[in-house]
Design brief:
The complex is a heterodimer of chains A (275) and B (351).
Chain A (H helix, E strand, L loop, with lengths): L4 E4 L2 E5 L3 H25 L6 H7 L2 H41 L5 H9 L7 H14 L14 H25 L1 H4 L6 H31 L9 H4 L1 E3 H7 L1 H10 L14 H10 L1
Antiparallel strand pairs in A: 1-2, 2-3
Chain B lengths: L2 H21 L13 H4 L5 E4 L4 E4 L4 H5 L8 H4 L23 E2 L4 E2 L3 H9 L21 H4 L20 H10 L3 H14 L6 H12 L2 H6 L6 H6 L2 H7 L8 H5 L24 H5 L27 H33 L9
Antiparallel strand pairs in B: 1-2, 3-4
Classes of the chains: A mainly alpha (275), B mainly alpha (351).
């Protein structure tokens, strides 16, 4: 199996994303920003900036075409991603179970609910612990697993968003066809859902996601994991301490494990000695 | 050179210059027989009127007027009460005055009386079917509430029909018609009437004067804020960004082939917005041709209002709650996180 820790210039870097996943993220980011630029001026058509932004991105003749092209790319990406994830789970987890002849309904259910990207009880505990940390009730930052609750939020919010916005976008794009199956009022609902969910998604990504990957003092001005695929040791310690210790131990760096956030190194050494 | 010769030379030169200036259509209003521009050509010509002291501009922009719809009408053709110069304060123009040019097909004097008859029978008319004065007749629009003296606007599009008139077309006109002034005016007139003189955004700006006036809408028991809701629809958003192919108020509220002055209430069974006619209106040849009758259930004027559009109201409210419920806690965490990073060592317990 590929080593998860890479050392460059004496510093450790931890593997997070494959090239394929980084390309998927780049496509997602580009299409979403394009869709926001060509869509938000329509939602806020009365705002002073709407006409300027809309004309910058092509105006009424070109912007709708760009919006539909970007939307189509995003929907194809969404479909690809679902197939990609299904394949990874099937080939990497279900097929080995089959080979071992251990595949049953119960085993499959257990396998699926234990997927690392699915929310679990540890996330609830981490949120509770984070609030204690943020309210100065403890000095200890939660020890995040491979995927933290923040990352799961960042994953599932756009997942839900793309589905809702995509389906409603297709309805509005093909209103004549849709009218052969569904009543016209569905188009009213589609417009509300498309525009309000898009606003939520845009605010979520540009405030919350960008805070975590751009504006936060740990990463400012920009985290590089979406480009390199590797996360620095400091960020691993801050966000994924539980997983960090697991990887360091697995790859033979037990002696070099750094203390978690909120600990001074001497306290950490003392704790290790006590253990 | 004698004094007489100098005088003669100056006379010849000034006469030539005057003839040149007067022969250029840009420098003359053909209809200014009464020499009204003697005074009205001055941009500052104005007067303060009434108790409210409203400044009224009396300047006539000659070059703009020359390319307007009424360019060929004499000033006194509309301002019939003005008989001498200088004149007393003029009365307001009555658009039904029969004083215009001769209508070429009937060879009768032209007036807008027929339009007024249409308007009287429409939803905007002051009297109902029984001849009784409707409530708040002063709110009913009349000619000048919606119209000014628009400029010619030669065809550049016709909804989704490709424009077909060009210099080549003008060349064909010249086969029979010798005067370019006539050709250009006729060309402009006909091609302007092929489409509306206003784009969809401008049309909504006319309707908004009354239909988004909350007091007026309430007085007439109209159930919706028509223009605001139109602006929030697909059509309205495109119109806002100057899409000229998009349907405006008149496309849906006036039967095709009829004058816009014949607009009917949606309760009238002949109205294109009547429940039974909506589908025909939406599915006309320029719009949703392939749609099924179910499309007519789309509510163009749905409002974010619990009483008038309850389903949409609750549906949209759910998204507002979802947005607030998602973002507010996350914003709270962000702010706390910033504060925590400012004060890393401050906590009640180390662990």
């Amino acid at each position: 199996m590929k080593r998860q820790i890479r050392i460059a210039n004496g510093k450790k870097y931890f593997f997070r994303f494959t090239v394929n996943q980084r390309i998927q993220h780049a496509l997602l980011a580009t299409t979403v920003i394009t869709l926001v630029l060509t869509g938000m001026p329509l939602k806020f058509h009365d705002a002073f900036w709407a006409a300027y932004v809309y004309n910058l991105v092509g105006g009424i003749t070109l912007a709708p075409v760009i919006h539909r092209i970007a939307g189509t790319i995003l929907l194809i990406l969404f479909a690809y991603h679902v197939i990609y994830m299904t394949t990874i789970i099937y080939k990497g987890q279900i097929v080995p179970l089959k080979r071992k002849q251990e595949l049953s309904t119960g085993a499959l259910f257990k396998l699926l609910i234990n997927q690392p990207l699915l929310p679990n009880l540890k996330d609830a505990k981490d949120i509770f612990d984070l609030l204690r940390y943020l309210f100065f009730l403890t000095g200890e930052h939660p020890h995040g697993a491979r995927f933290t609750w923040k990352e799961k939020f960042d994953y599932w919010a756009p997942f839900w968003g793309i589905f809702i916005i995509g389906v409603t976008g297709l309805i509005m794009w093909n209103e004549n066809l849709v009218s052969k199956i569904l009543p016209g009022i569905v188009i009213n609902y589609a417009l509300i859902a498309h525009s309000d969910e898009a606003l939520l998604a845009a605010l979520f990504l540009f405030i919350w996601h960008w805070y975590n990957v751009h504006y936060s003092t740990s990463v400012f001005p920009m985290g590089t994991v979406f480009l390199t695929g590797y996360l620095s040791e400091e960020l691993m310690v801050e966000e994924h301490y539980e997983y960090y210790v697991e990887l360091m131990t697995k790859e033979g760096y037990e002696d070099e494990i750094l203390p978690p956030l909120g600990y001074k190194s001497n306290e950490h050494e003392a704790e290790k000695d006590a253990v | 050179m004698t004094q007489k010769k100098v005088f003669k030379t100056i006379l010849v030169i000034s006469t030539s210059v005057l003839c040149f200036i007067l022969s250029n259509p840009k420098f003359s209003i053909a209809s200014d027989v009464g020499n009204c521009l003697l005074c009205h050509k001055y941009p500052g010509l104005s007067r303060v009127e009434g108790d409210k002291g409203i400044l009224r501009l009396l300047y006539v922009n000659e070059s703009a007027f020359n390319i307007s719809m009424h360019a060929k009408v004499k000033c006194e053709g509309c301002h019939t009460d003005i008989k001498k110069i200088p004149h007393d304060p003029a009365k307001k123009v009555d658009c039904l005055t029969q004083c215009h040019i001769i209508e070429p097909t009937s060879e009768k004097k032209f007036s807008h009386k027929d339009v007024a008859d249409f308007l009287a029978k429409s939803v905007h008319g002051k009297f109902d079917k029984t001849g009784q004065l409707k409530k708040f007749p002063e709110d009913r629009p009349y000619c000048k509430d919606c119209h000014d003296n628009p400029l010619y606007r030669p065809v550049s599009f016709n909804k989704r029909v490709t424009p077909g008139i060009s210099e080549q077309a003008l060349g064909r006109c010249r086969v029979c018609h010798k005067k370019d002034d006539f050709i250009y005016r006729f060309y402009n007139h006909v091609t302007t009437r092929l489409h509306r003189s206003r784009n969809p955004k401008n049309i909504t700006e006319v309707c908004v004067r009354c239909h988004d006036d909350i007091k007026l809408v309430k007085r007439h028991n109209l159930s919706i804020k028509a223009v605001e809701t139109y602006k929030d629809s697909f059509h309205g958003k495109a119109a806002e960004f100057l899409d000229e192919r998009i349907p405006d108020c008149l496309d849906c509220h006036v039967n095709r082939g009829e004058s816009v002055h014949q607009m009917l209430s949606k309760k009238n069974s002949l109205a294109p917005t009547h429940e039974n006619n909506k589908y025909n209106t939406c599915s006309n040849v320029e719009c949703h041709t392939n749609a099924s009758p179910k499309l007519a259930q789309f509510e163009v004027h749905a409002e974010f209002n619990k009483k008038r559009s309850p389903k949409q109201y609750y549906f949209q409210s759910a998204f507002i709650v979802l947005t607030g419920g998602t973002l507010l806690p996350l914003l709270g965490i962000m702010l706390l996180d910033l504060l925590r990073r400012l004060l890393p060592g401050l906590s009640r317990r180390r662990k």
